[in-house]
Amino acid sequence: MPELTYKDAIRQALLEEMEADPAVFMMGEDIGKYQGTFMITAGFLEKFGDRRVVDTPISESGFVGIAFGAALMGLRPVVELMTINFSMVAMDQIVNHAAKWRYMSDGQFTVPMVIRGPGGPVSQLAAQHSHSLESWFAHSPGLKVVMPATPSDAKGLLRTAIRDDNPVIFIEHGRLYNTRGEVPEGDYDCPIGKAAIRRPGRDLTIVAYSSLVPVALNAAKTLAKEGIEAEVVDLRTISPLDIDTVIQSVRKTNRAVVCQEEWKFIGVAAEVASQIYEKAFDDLDAPVERVGAADVPLPYARNLETLAIPNDQSIIDAAHRAIRGIKKSAGPGIRVA
Amino acid sequence: MPELTYKDAIRQALLEEMEADPAVFMMGEDIGKYQGTFMITAGFLEKFGDRRVVDTPISESGFVGIAFGAALMGLRPVVELMTINFSMVAMDQIVNHAAKWRYMSDGQFTVPMVIRGPGGPVSQLAAQHSHSLESWFAHSPGLKVVMPATPSDAKGLLRTAIRDDNPVIFIEHGRLYNTRGEVPEGDYDCPIGKAAIRRPGRDLTIVAYSSLVPVALNAAKTLAKEGIEAEVVDLRTISPLDIDTVIQSVRKTNRAVVCQEEWKFIGVAAEVASQIYEKAFDDLDAPVERVGAADVPLPYARNLETLAIPNDQSIIDAAHRAIRGIKKSAGPGIRVA
Amino acid sequence: MGVKKRKALDSGEALLSPLPVNEVDAVALYRRMQLIRLFEEEAAKGFTRTRIAGYFHTCTGEEASVVGIISALREDDYLVTSYRDHGHALARGLPPREVMAELYGRRTGSSHGKGGSMHIFDAKRHFMGGSGIVGGGIPMGAGIGFALKYQDSDSICACFFGDGAVNEGTFHEALNMAGLWKLPVLFVCENNLYGMGTHVSRANAVPEMTERAAGYGMERFKVDGMDLFEVRAAADELVGRVRRERRPIFLESLTYRFSGHGAHDSGKYRSAEEVEQWKKRDPLILAEDTLRRLHLLDDAGVEAACAEAKAAVDDAARFAEQSPMPDPKELYTNVYA
Amino acid sequence: MGVKKRKALDSGEALLSPLPVNEVDAVALYRRMQLIRLFEEEAAKGFTRTRIAGYFHTCTGEEASVVGIISALREDDYLVTSYRDHGHALARGLPPREVMAELYGRRTGSSHGKGGSMHIFDAKRHFMGGSGIVGGGIPMGAGIGFALKYQDSDSICACFFGDGAVNEGTFHEALNMAGLWKLPVLFVCENNLYGMGTHVSRANAVPEMTERAAGYGMERFKVDGMDLFEVRAAADELVGRVRRERRPIFLESLTYRFSGHGAHDSGKYRSAEEVEQWKKRDPLILAEDTLRRLHLLDDAGVEAACAEAKAAVDDAARFAEQSPMPDPKELYTNVYA
Ligand SMILES: Cc1ncc(C[n+]2csc(CCOP(=O)(O)OP(=O)(O)O)c2C)c(N)n1
Ligand SMILES: Cc1ncc(C[n+]2csc(CCOP(=O)(O)OP(=O)(O)O)c2C)c(N)n1
Ligand SMILES: [Mg+2]
Ligand SMILES: [Mg+2]
């Protein structure tokens, strides 16, 4: 199987879907003439022309809404947000329009659109530019929320998202852009709403997604050296959430650590943990441990940023707590002494 | 003690704080000449003049940002959003500016502002107009989130919010506006971040806030007839969250139902439930039950709306499940057969 | 009145006949206005009788603007409206039964009761829906224009919004892109002088709408929105130009709402005299006068028009009253495609 | 160049002297530009050496615009900038050490390392901060003007933003309210012809900024942003007018960025010739020429200015390098007041 970077995998999915379906078009800031902020769309303008590769003014609310209107007409817009942070200026168009048109019209309209772009802390992007916001989007019915962790999923899930008839928020991770992995050729199956076991294990379930999947796998390696075999579940999509795969794993391991990179408070991990308790209470030998960012706006300074976001060690520590069955969780995995 | 409606309690807090502090001013759509969408500010323009009671164009992002700028200068703006739904067009100014200025400048600035208005489903306001969004706001550090359930709290907490040096999102509930209750006179203590026991009980803890507090109290009454004594905890503020009061109650009752009116998925109830498990795992005799809205955009039709949002019966059903210790929760409290 | 004549006609192309349509159509347009007037009155009664709930806005007084413009569209053209959308739906040919049943929240409504008053849709009539968010539909309207251009269609989109909506960022962003990309959209600013209770002069630094929209590179016109045939003539010309020239045009239609903003209205922001003054230019009376002068209508004709409209409206109310509520399982359908 | 002279001067009030400031100040302004130029070059090296990270934008080429306007402000005036803010900070008198240390993310930085390159603050110098969100700071600037008016101050606020920012809804909303309420704000559009890689003609339906801003009821001027003394003369006049007349003014400063948009730049959107062409009007060279012509500067003077700037910048880099990282416990401070 050929190896690709996560970034190139995204590029390939876009290229192939643009080639396959003339109703697919792209819209966003600097995707054309500039060649894409992260070069993902380099050459697209030249190849597909400015009818289908549309450079926009810096007007996220406006062009997300324009894409939404175009989707109602049967086009299949793929909107690039330069980073997911900028969804905040377009939130109403996303959550109060695109997500609701089908329901309010009782099925008279479909809204086949993708909003994609990188999210999450990368390296010192500071407080305004380090969001991923999956907890907000997934809280809102009518949207699907996809967060791939591997190049193969980046390509496969993006293809599926573009073919999906619903608004899909596709949150890439800047820190994963240059990671490499095998990507099958052709039209491999990659459904939205299906988690994946990235590593089997019997002692503990680690639930993660996006950038924390490789971190969790690293943590699992370290744990294995201590004789703790962790099973790593990659959620891949946050909404719909494949809780069954999580529950099956926990039934086997009886312990769970749930990880998210953004703020823990009212986040994805709280939902996953709650559902684990609700569906596998008697199988649990210890409280579910949550790992997430410190509940602060992300600071710029390197050392503070590192402290604020989860890493191998925060997952390992949480795993230890779960294994020891310590009742009182220690708050954010990375709380400083 | 005099009785007031919730609405008049809000009005009184605004009046008194406007009178007490010349740095306090109000800004919003139709708060002045129109007299306020819900008449809360009737007479204010005449009394305080258009310097301090500022009718705005329909430009939420703009005037929230203007209020934020004014707050940096030492003024104490109280911004009315006609309804909290419209925060979606101002989300970036709230979450990416007002909430972050203090941290990013490391304390050089304070942002003493209140953003207030009614949220939640009232009666068939339909999908775009029935949000409360506390789960979003409370997810975001830098904001405080207050949701009073009683006239006394509406007044007391709003006063505290106006005097607070941080951006406070003050979410009223349209369905509570005309409810009545005793309101102490003068400057009674009403801190942000302190939950209240609204009804003592030994068998079960029901956690609720805002409009669901009276609903929970009703449910508790019914349960009492069956011999189940429920303790009702009113959170009052979502961020900061007074989890200690909740935990103390659960330590006593060993069972909990956590209620929220908006969507359950990645909502406040998931956080509260997670923290209960984390802090009182061994005290629990059954999984925590969550009650929340069906995960759909709110439909207009009366019967569908009623089905979608939690009511006495959904809380009672959840209480029964918690008491019986049934392991598998039945999904949204109101899932139809 | 101070209404400037539409520039289109000023610029020389005088009408040969006093009517922009043939005689039969002229009377039909008048009858359509009657239908809307009586429909709105009946609906208001339905609200009082609690058959209708939620936010509820009628267009009484604005019928000439609504009918004059919409009747100039072709069947294959598209429409986007605000929440003040009943009249637009009827003008577009939605059956009164379906619209009324939607207001009643019934299974037989245009969206089977899931949308409600602010959210009328009819995909097959290209009625793309009412957004309840001020300015929220403007990007969507531009997006429909985007799709029509993409698809090389010769249809156009008529996008309606109020004078208050021009103060939302969405207006600014969408109009700029429409101008930049030459999208075939007729932007119709329904200037009824008030955004809820705020007069345009208290909301706009430049109250003259055609100046306010100077920064978007599109031609701008203004029409007397109380005069059905003036509006229709302007719309004929401008719709035709958008269609032929494939670029956007901005049209201000100066009108007045006789009713309150919504079901509740403080009425404090305008004087009874002002309302009376405008009622002298009631669009129904103006059109009736013109038609009488041309001997196209006499007392009997007026009576027949009224009777016909009343019959249709009564029938619609009866139909709605007798229609069933949506099936409870509809709660969960059409959240996703 | 096609730069229209600022209307203020066109309209008759010709300058008596070729310099808007005394001779000592003239040289000081030139030196300040030198400092900024060398600072930015040093900072860029710091980025390459990974001392600086995150999003990083220099203002090389735009120094005349920055220094000319900011030097016209009084100490008690206020400033709001975009993320391209190092030069503005230095022009305002922030010590190069503090700015460089902030870029390095050190405890000695202007925000103790918590803000970073895009978020320079200095409350005591009324430097209210850089927003990383395009257009995000414009409402804040208006809000500061609101507070100044509220407080009956005779200070003003200078609010800087780029040509790309005029396409954000915040621009539209904030300028309308500023015009409507007569807020004492000088809105400075730093038109460097590109929003990242998108030329104004590809983003604006009306690329002429002074026309684009026609709908806000404020006077609009344009100045040659490459000519220090032209800018300063215009700023003196306009700052004075905003101060005296207590109303907003819009000033376009036409300039050019010699560097890439940020640390990474595809460079694909403009030609080397175009850049070279603009470099012939390097603001440093233009100012030097003027000063030489007036015998205020000679080779020795230029050398001294360079040496002085270089010494300050080297000192700043050394200081930053040797400064400690923030204390880990800073992670949790100043989230709330
Ligand atoms: C973003 C947003 N802000 C506020 C409201 C509340 N609101 C509903 S209609 C309205 C007035 C709109 O005025 P205008 O655009 O002139 O339209 P009109 O109602 O006069 O037809 C307001 C403020 C809303 N629905 N959406
Ligand atoms: C809302 C938002 N959208 C997009 C971006 C990404 N971005 C950062 S700077 C920039 C270009 C801004 O151009 P302009 O306003 O002309 O300022 P300049 O960078 O030229 O000084 C863009 C698109 C952002 N920071 N915020
Ligand atoms: Mg209006
Ligand atoms: Mg620029």
CATH architecture of the largest domain in chain A: 3-Layer(aba) Sandwich
Proportion of residues in β-strands of chain C = 5-15%
Adjacency order of strands in the biggest sheet of chain A: 3-2-4-5-7-6-12
Whole-angstrom Rg of chain A:
20 Å
Q: Return the string of H and E elements of chain C.
A: HHHEHHEHEHEEEHEHEHHH
Q: List unreliable stretches of 5+ residues of chain C.
A: 1-16
Largest sheet of chain C: 6 strands, parallel
The global form of chain C is globular
Tell me about the largest β-sheet of chain A: 7 strands, mixed
* The CATH homologous superfamily of the largest domain in chain A: Thiamin diphosphate (ThDP)-binding fold, Pyr/PP domains
As a percent range, the share of strand residues of chain A is 15-25%
Q: What is the global morphology of chain A?
A: globular
- Give the overall average pLDDT of chain A: 95
Helix content of chain C: 40-55%
What can be said about this structure in brief?
The complex is a heterotetramer, with two copies of chain A (337 residues) and two copies of chain C (337 residues). Chain A has 337 residues and is an alpha/beta fold.
Fold and architecture overview:
The complex is a heterotetramer, with two copies of chain A (337 residues) and two copies of chain C (337 residues). Chain A has two domains: 3-182, Rossmann fold (3-Layer(aba) Sandwich), CATH 3.40.50.970; 196-324, Rossmann fold (3-Layer(aba) Sandwich). Chain A is built from twelve helices and 14 strands. The model of chain A is unreliable at 327-337 (pLDDT under 50). Chain A is an alpha/beta fold. Chain A is globular. By secondary structure, chain C is of the alpha/beta class. Chain C has a domain at 18-65 and 79-94 and 104-119 and 186-201 and 256-297. Chain C has a six-stranded parallel β-sheet, sandwiched between helices. Chain C has a two-stranded antiparallel sheet with strand order 5-6. In chain C, helix 5 crosses helix 12 (299-322). At the A-B interface, helix 4, helix 6 and helix 10 of A face helix 4, helix 6 and helix 10 of B. The structure holds thiamine diphosphate (2 copies) and magnesium ion (MG) (2 copies). The site of one magnesium ion has 6 residues of chain D, from strand 5.
